[in-house]
Amino acid sequence: MSDTAEQTGRHIERPEESEPLSDAEQRKRRRERRIAAYRGARQVLARPGFLGTLRERLALLDEARALDLHDLDETVDLYGDGIVGALEEKVAGLLGKEAAAFFPTGTMAQQVALRCWAGRTGNPTVALHALAHPEMHERDAFSQVSGLRPVHVTSEPRLPTADEVRDFDEPFGALMLELPLRDAGFVLPSWEELIEVVEAARERDAVVHFDGARLWESTVHFGRPLEEIAGLADSVYVSFYKSLDGFGGAVLAGPQTLVDEAKAWRHRYGGTVFQQFPTALSALAGLERELPRLPEYVAHARVVAAALRDGFAAAGVPWTRVHPEPPHTNEFQVWLPYDVDVVTEAALRQAEETKTVLFGHAWDAKGPGLACTEVSVRAAGLEWTADDVKTAVAEFVARLNEEVSK
Q: For the chain, what is the HEC assignment?
């Protein structure tokens, strides 16, 4: 959960001092309050595992052992063999690809994938969205580390169109599509639009790579199985902790020759870790436990989103936006016409006072008097009815009005 949104928060006084806290100290305290509220809440829409205790996270390994996901009498993995190899094979099968390589991070996996494709195409230019994860959250890693040259097909809050790809004014060796596009609101194109975009890239002799960190939950929107979705791309990256609640890790899947080269570059990047069996076992547990439930989460996210909209209307909030509507995945955005410090404090107070977390992510300032946050619906959220959501909205708006009047 990013805290960059809270830079504009109001000053919070230290009990023993009159000097206001710095922005960094305010962000730190608010994050601590959010985590504490999550920990103490009785009702949440999602309970992310990464906020758990060490004991709770280790229990996931006990669960994996109980599920009999792998032969635990097998010798532990060394530099990517054993259970890591078994995980690679399983994910390659799920995505319908020849082979797969396990990486400690998606940042590394995608740099390696695209530099391998650059060697094959002879063009280091990567066409991608201006809001794509490498551009927003990776400190220019493509250009600073991997010799790639990112160019932006569009900056609109949607996926690129076929015409934008076809008419782009310079050559590129690879088109990278983030599915769903998180910073635009976890949005996806239609299935027909996605096919047209891929075909447009191929017309330009470019390869297509899917940033599929959250691809797992796209099947409901597309109405297609994972294998068919991934089959549109030359290579695909998927994450194990964003949707599947694993400890970390990622897989790059594609042709055998690409994966073989990727493993060589993985070694050079320092990603061939000595032993990774806890992370691999947690990934296998996530595939077993969470993957089959993701369609249920997506369906209920649409119930929650509609109830949020109706609840804010009933509470008299002058304007609100649920984006996209209906949600394309089990995650979406909520926009409200208030300063970010006001909605942040109202959300924290509600969580602390009622033990119900409606908005547990940080709020981003999108302009004067405009704030946005992300909402995630997971297993815990399935317990909420539409009426539960509307009740929580009313409680939130009551505190929102109190903050506005201060």
A: CCCHHHHHCCCCECCCCCCECCHHHHHHHHHHHHHHHHHHCCEECCCCHHHCCHHHHHHHHHHHHHCCCCCCCCCCCCCCCCHHHHHHHHHHHHHCCCEEEEECCHHHHHHHHHHHHHHHHCCCEEEECCCCHHHHHCCCHHHHHCCCEEEECCCCCCCCCHHHHHCCCCCCCEEEEECCEHHHCCECCCHHHHHHHHHHHHHCCCEEEEEECCHHHHHHHHCCCHHHHHCCCCEEEEECCCCCCCCCCEEEEECHHHHHHHHHHHHHCCCCCCCCHHHHHHHHHHHHHCHHHHHHHHHHHHHHHHHHHHHHHHCCCCCCEEECCCCCCCEEEEEECCCHHHHHHHHHHHHHHHCEECCCCCEEEEECCEEEEEEECCHHHHHCCHHHHHHHHHHHHHHHHHHHCC
